[in-house]
Design goal:
Shape: globular
Strand content: 15-25%
Radius of gyration: 37 Å
Helix content: 10-25%
Distance between the termini: 103 Å
Number of strands: 48
């Protein structure tokens, strides 16, 4: 979690002072805690659930050695209880490492407690105990992300010594999946007595009824950090009679649907270093307050409705900015050259606006930029060569613009690149060989929807960290390099989970240490940056952020690739999706395709593949989407396909498959889309399971399909529909097709005979030719004479009418 420097120094001083005075559970002091407090802790433990035995050390008489317990070295009193979940949150292992159960009031015996942390646990929606307000000496209280629910007790206002209060209930994107209990407060008057408060975080606490939130927080003169993200704030007053929290350095009001223009009182926060107003409904041009924000380090205004252009001197106004995010607005015009004057800029995100013109060529002095996202704009021209000076660049997103030309070779200097996305532009030429030779840290390479041509360079197989390669919708030719089997990260079945994070502050520290002459960057909040990728899968463009580390895939679709599918690709056992559709691939589907154990989507459609469907296809037990349509596959549909119990989409249409539809396919319980049309299938159509939901379109074009039994009548009209794709109607289709062919042939033959019969006589019979042309000349003269007479007669009539009118 981000913290201001002042708050960090304060907490560091506090912890150091406590360390000097108190002994921790791991210390060497012989002091033991007071017996009644030890008994109170044991009673408290009885109310907790502890599946991973995190409190297994809570035995014996010396509670100063218990996990999370800190005692005063002189008096023996318990002064600190830190039971924060030691593991970072992971949606797949939620509850495994968390404490839960009931919080018993036996803790009230700890009268000298000044630090209490129960964060990152799961108390299943129970209320925050109101007796916590009885800890008069408490300075630090952290109950964040622990599954508390209901109203926040106003008794917390009795904690007059409190300096740090964290009630944040937000687990980011996971909050929507876990159905977390809600915390709420009808008003915030209980905060008023907390005059020593320095830090307040109530993210995702519902404050829709707390109309006094700004007036109350403005009465806290020492407050330095205020975070009220996603709180459903009822209103944000446009002005304040007096701004009292002048020490405020961090303000986060993101995701609150704040409308209208920027509140005027923000202009008076002269100590502000961090401002996050993203995901609101703020309108109008970018605010003028930027001109007075020389000390601002991080500015997040993304996902609003700001319009107009970027100030030409934006770099002069905010020279110490580390992080600038203005994405998802309606900002127009070009990118000012002064952006390059922000010498401390680490993250620049101007994506999803309406920016136009060229990317400025001024990056040679912007040495520490690590993330640049200019995607989804209307930028044109070429990538400036000066971008090759961004030696510490980790993420470059230029997708969905109008950029053209070749990819500049200077980018090979950006050897720290992890993500390179140039999709949806008009880049031409060959895919540069140096991408594979120089950018060896790449994990994501997205070049789809451009005009690249030539062979796929086999040097891309040198990218051992590559987990996502998208070259779809270009003009690439040649064969698929068999060396792709060496993409080692794609060959790991056990996928990493969670987001891809860039260690920004750590990298800055390394830069400063390596180059002692470099100016120390005033990094305040930037611990890490989460990568986000737009990935086209199942014909939809989806954004992946929190789970991007789990996405492993290869997309070479819609090119001009030829040859066979390399057997080596089946060694990439970590692939989640493989798309080779829309090429000119031939030969058989690799017999070892079943080695792709974690494959979820396979698309080989619109090629020239032949042979049978490999039996090992049934080993793809997590496959949810299979498309083999528009090929030349033969043989029968394997009965073992029924083992694909996760299959939702199956398209085998437009092949030459024969035999019966395996009855076991009715066991595919989640199958929602099926297309077996235009094959040579025969026999009965299964009439159970998911097959009851499929209509004619799924089976049409097969000569000999019929209802479950050709001898028994279909029991209802629904089954009669299937007879329309049977042999009788098929013979009618054949007859109709024959008549059409005969008709077209007769027309063509008649035209040929008539044309050459007439022209041939004229060519070989000179007297006939002279007579014909003489006849045509005579007809022409008669026609012209008639037209002249008609025109003269019309002119005389018009002349008489004019004379009559004058008389």
């Amino acid at each position: 979690m981000d913290r201001s420097v002042h708050l960090f120094i304060l907490l560091l001083w506090f912890l150091c002072s406590e360390t000097i005075q108190f002994c921790s559970c791991n210390g060497d002091s012989r002091a033991v805690c007071i017996e009644r407090e030890r008994q109170a802790l044991l009673k408290f433990k009885e109310g907790l659930t502890d599946p991973m035995k995190l409190l297994s050390s809570w035995v014996g008489h010396d509670c100063s050695r218990w996990r999370g317990v800190v005692c005063n070295n002189r008096t023996g009193h318990v002064v600190k209880l830190d039971l924060r979940n030691p593991r970072p949150f992971n949606i797949y292992y939620y509850d495994r490492w968390t404490l839960g159960g009931e919080i018993l009031p036996s803790l009230l015996e700890l009268r000298h407690l000044n630090y209490l942390d129960l964060s990152m646990n799961d108390f299943k929606g129970i209320g925050i105990p109101d007796w916590i307000g009885s800890f008069k000496k408490l300075k630090y209280l952290n109950l964040s992300r622990s599954g508390f629910g209901g109203a926040i007790p106003h008794q917390l206002g009795n904690l007059s010594s409190l300096r740090f209060l964290d009630l944040n209930n937000d687990l980011s994107v996971y909050s929507h999946y876990l159905d977390l209990p809600e915390l709420d407060a009808n008003n915030l008057q209980w905060l008023s007595p907390l005059s020593s408060l320095l830090f307040l975080d109530m993210g995702l606490v519902k404050l829709r009824m707390a109309t006094d939130w700004l007036q109350v927080t403005n009465t806290l003169p020492l407050l330095e950090e205020l975070r009220l993200a996603n709180c459903q704030l009822p209103n944000v007053p446009a002005s304040l009679p007096h701004v009292n929290f002048t020490r405020l350095s961090v303000l986060d009001l993101s995701s609150n649907s704040i409308g209208s223009k920027m509140p005027a009182w923000l202009f008076n926060l002269s100590s502000l270093l961090f401002l996050d107003l993203s995901s609101n409904s703020l309108q109008g041009p970018l605010p003028n307050f930027l001109g007075g924000s020389l000390s601002l380090r991080e500015l997040r205004l993304s996902n609003n409705m700001f319009n107009g252009s970027l100030p030409e001197n934006i770099g002069d106004r905010m020279p110490e900015l580390n992080f600038l995010s203005l994405s998802q607005n309606q900002i127009e015009g070009g990118i000012p050259l002064s952006v390059c004057k922000m010498k401390y800029l680490v993250v620049l995100d101007l994506s999803q606006n309406q920016l136009s013109s060229r990317i400025p060529s001024c990056w040679q002095d912007s040495m520490i930029i690590m993330v640049m996202d200019l995607g989804n704009n209307n930028l044109s021209g070429e990538i400036p060569g000066s971008m090759g000076s961004l030696l510490f660049l980790k993420s470059l997103h230029l997708r969905n613009n109008n950029l053209s030309g070749a990819v500049p070779s200077s980018l090979k200097n950006c050897t720290s690149l992890v993500s390179l996305d140039l999709s949806g532009n008009q880049f031409t030429g060959n895919i540069p060989v140096w991408i594979g030779e120089s950018l060896t840290s790449l994990r994501f390479l997205m070049l789809r929807s451009n005009m690249f041509y030539g062979d796929i360079p086999p040097q891309l197989s040198l990218l051992s960290a590559l987990q996502l390669l998208d070259l779809a919708q270009n003009n690439l030719s040649g064969t698929i390099p068999s060396s792709f089997g060496n993409l080692s990260t794609m060959a790991v079945e056990k996928r990493k989970v969670g987001p891809v994070l860039y260690d920004l502050s750590g990298t800055i520290a390394k830069i400063t240490k390596k180059n002692r002459s470099a100016v120390v960057v005033p990094m305040i909040y930037l611990d890490s940056y989460q990568e986000n990728m737009m990935i086209v899968t199942k014909r939809n463009e989806l954004e992946f952020g929190r789970v991007i580390a789990e996405v492993i895939g290869l997309d070479l679709s819609n090119n001009n690739l030829s040859g066979e599918i390399p057997e080596e690709l089946t060694g990439l056992s970590g692939l989640g999706f493989l798309n080779l559709s829309g090429n000119h691939l031939m030969g058989m589907i690799p017999w070892s395709i079943g080695r792709l154990k974690v494959l979820e989507s396979l698309d080989l459609s619109r090629n020239h593949l032949s042979g049978v469907i490999p039996p090992s296809m049934a080993d793809l037990t997590v496959l949810s989407r299979l498309n083999l349509s528009y090929n030349n596959l033969t043989g029968m549909i394997p009965g073992s396909i029924s083992r694909l119990q996760e299959l939702k989409f199956l398209d085998l249409s437009r092949n030459q498959l024969s035999g019966v539809i395996p009855p076991s396919m009715a066991d595919l319980r989640v199958l929602s889309w099926l297309n077996l049309s235009y094959n040579n299938l025969s026999g009965p159509i299964p009439f159970e399971g998911q097959f009851l939901n499929f209509d004619n379109a799924s089976f049409i074009g097969n000569y000999d399909l019929y209802c479950p039994s050709p001898l028994n009548p279909c029991p209802d009209d629904r089954q009669h529909q299937y007879l329309k794709v049977g042999s009788k109607d098929r013979e009618e289709e054949r007859a109709d097709a024959s008549e059409i062919i005969l008709f077209c042939t007769s027309i063509e033959l008649g035209f040929v005979v008539g044309f050459w019969g007439f022209c041939g006589v004229l060519i070989f019979k000179k007297p006939w030719r002279i007579a014909y042309y003489g006849f045509m000349d005579d007809m022409k003269e008669r026609f012209l004479s008639t037209v002249e007479k008609k025109i003269a007669r019309l002119q005389r009539r018009i002349s008489r009418q004019k004379q009559g009118g004058q008389g």
